[in-house]
Write a structure and sequence with these properties.
mainly alpha, 2 strands, two-stranded antiparallel ribbon, single chain
């Protein structure tokens, strides 16, 4: 090649945009004056266009197999793969745990609501319908004065206008007296 002409590598770098700005300006200035280098540059541009339009050939089967083998060997050292059986077992335990948690939450909620409803209904019914005052009277005396049950302290007499006490109030009175 004539030393006054540009090298193929320089023209290829210009076509690919790999030259620095000052060097690209120098090459473009030379191409304006040299018809031979302009023709070579056009040929290189055609080669790049033809290669870009060409179909990509398929990879040879032997090369693909070698690559797959190398990837598999490398992954054996670095990756931890859980088997399908292990994943199913973990999934089984997760489902069972979720079901048990649901039972506990629902059962606990039902118990708490039942206790709350029973407490509300018993306090409402005690306010509406006081428990009947059950006392033991001495049938022989005819006085209607209560008599103590075996093992209990003697009951207090009520004043004539006082309301009868409920079972809870009697228990609280007895506990306080003890």
């Amino acid at each position: 090649m004539n030393p006054a002409h540009l090298d193929y590598d320089v023209l290829a770098d210009l076509a690919e945009g790999l030259l620095e700005d000052d060097e690209a300006a120098s090459v473009n200035a030379h191409l304006e004056t040299c018809a031979d280098c302009r023709d070579l540059s056009a040929d290189l541009a055609d080669v790049s266009r033809i290669l870009a339009e060409a179909p990509v050939p398929s990879m040879p089967a032997e090369l693909a197999e070698r690559i797959d083998t190398a990837i598999a060997a490398e992954s054996m050292h670095t990756a931890t793969v859980a088997s399908l059986e292990q994943r199913r077992g973990r999934r089984h335990w997760r489902i069972l745990s979720a079901a048990a948690a649901t039972v506990v939450v629902l059962g606990g909620g039902a118990t708490v609501s039942k206790i709350a409803m029973d407490g509300a209904s018993s306090s409402d019914s005690a306010a509406r319908h006081p428990a009947p005052h059950r006392s033991l009277t001495d049938p022989g005396s005819g006085s209607g004065v209560p008599k103590a049950a075996p093992g209990e302290p003697a009951p207090r007499s009520r004043s004539p206008g006082a309301a009868p006490t409920t079972g809870r109030a009697r228990w609280a009175t007895r506990s306080a007296a003890s």
